[in-house]
Amino acid sequence: MDLTHSPADEEFRAEARAWLRAHVPRTPLPSLETEEGFAAHRSWEAELAADRWSVVSWPERFGGRDAGLPRWLVFEEEYWAAGAPGRVGQNGVSLLAPTLFEHGTEEQRARVLPPMATGEVVWAQAWSEPEAGSDLAALTSRAVRADGGWRLRGQKTWSSRAAFADRAFGLFRSDPAAAEPHQGLTYLMFDLRAPGVTVRPIGRLDGRPAFAELFLDDVFVPDEDVIGAPGDGWRIAMSAAGNERGLTLRSPGRFLASAARLRDLWRAQGSPEHARARVADALIAARAYQLFTYSAASRVLDGARLGPESSMNKVFWSELDLALHETALDLLGAEGELADGAWSEGYVFSLAGPIYAGTNEIQRDIVAERLLGLPKGRR
Amino acid sequence: MRFLLDAEQRSFAESLRAMLTAAGTPAVIRDWGRGEHAGGRALWARIAEAGVFGLAVPEEYGGLGPHPVELAVAFVELGRHAVPGPLAETVGAAVLLGEPPLAERFLPALAAGKDLATVAAPCGHAVDGDAASVRLAPAPEGLYLSTAAAGPVRRSLDPARRLARLAPGGELLTPRPPYAEALTWIRLATAAQALGVGLALLDRTVAHVRQRTQFGVCVGSFQAVKHRLADAKTALEFARPLLFGAAVSLRPAEVAAAELTACEAAYSTARTALHLHGAIGYTAEYDLSLWLTKARALRSAWGTPEECRDLVLAEGL
User: Fold this and answer.
1) pTM of the model
2) Which of A57, A119, B182, B210 has the fewest CB atoms within 10 Å, counting from its CB?
3) Domains in chain A: how many in total?
4) Which residue intervals define the domain Acyl-CoA dehydrogenase/oxidase C-terminal in the entry (chain A) (predicted)?
């Protein structure tokens, strides 16, 4: 049981802290779910990338620093503590990149990863469909074999970042005759500006176009943009789902920073008794999440793979994020309803947490069935 | 950074678990609750033999410690089996009496399991004041060794906890006992015990809902049942790293956070366990009751949730 970071990791921490202190914008960037804010966040990614801070865990040849998990956790702690901007490239970096590292070809990695690292190409995810949400394997969008590639037909929805992003990745049904719903699916990358793609932005709860519907009408995708073997898409997508739910999507650094901000807000408001317990509980939960993650990271370093315990992560961080923001709004009193408050957009974002990346009900089913060994039943 | 139990620590837990499972604690607990201590003392001796009470005692006084991580490992197992007796209090006593000349006088017998120690809580109750041979009463002028339990033993909701007041006065052992440090160790032990209680409640409830059939299917296949158990599992698994993080740092605020979280997780698991067992869980004769009631008692035994939160807010994590 050792919670101390190595001297080399502490040096890395100091270097990251100094860089962030010099570069983090003094005034917050406009919301990344607006055209202007998206562009500003894209520039911020380029600034990070210029000094190789945008994807520290990646190999150096793709723009990273070969940081192992402990060092990545250190970076995230520093990043969020510095009040640095949200990450517009998150979908690509935390979902597509791990998939490419595991299942992609070297050609794909060399072509896709460097512009992802600089923010030159921002990725959207294209999983859900109007009739396939929690039951993702029910998806019906087709990938039809064509000369030298595939043609995509169908509709995707709730596609995060798609309103302003450049490219997207998702699952398509390439073999409709397959015996099981999760068979005959293919994992593809495609251009959101390709002929046949229509992007219809959807206003999130606060009206900002944080996601979009995608209409795909015979969109050509070359073979080089298929990840893994055609028909093997479900297995490939699920191998990255653990990332989305767990370790790499929501790092402890985020919640430690939010909990510290919440404590500061509470003190600034005169430490009101009505919020005392909730502020303390947020601090404790953020610390619990950090230590839980250190423990998971230690197991990964020992060669373990993260399995269904990622589902506990997802329930925990999404509920913590909501509780943090709800407490902050309550502390703000009547000002809590203002749409442009310091906690408002975070609050709106946190409301989606229990829904995306597999609803918390799906996660609880996974915990019950795969960690506790309870039998499958009706959903 | 390697935040995992090592092979030796895991095998320590496994051997304790095997020993306690073989001992069959429910019968021992019920005897203890009636004031029949023989079985409990025999079990105590075996726990001491495994080295548990030496973990807070330095080697020079017959112990192995201080080893707070191993202590947490051990107390999770003691909680898992609802072992009766002043467990956390004996650990706390070893810290209170940790300086010479008291250390030479008291610690070897505590480490060896020959003496059971209790410490009066701020409310005045001392757990197992009748069974303990070392009865410590912190007072404004210092730490007293009380000569006897005074007055009738009061029953706790947890039948294994026999609460007694200590006779006032006695021998003033030291004017300045390390009370804050002792409280930290007691809270660490309590947190670990609570986590073990919660884990046992979860295991028993999972086993129950897998075999209990209603409407022609096992009740564990119902989503309403699964989700309560998934929440219990999640709460316990997030309390675990707080416990071991607190054992590593021994900072009072971290220990308070661990105690609060482990006790809350155990208590909410107890509520789930009671509910999912249905009426059978609401009976004293069914052994589940021994864990259900302990989860409630530990929650406020050595610091209420509010006291723990105060420490977290005052000192930070």
Assistant:
1) 0.96
2) B210
3) 3
4) 231-372
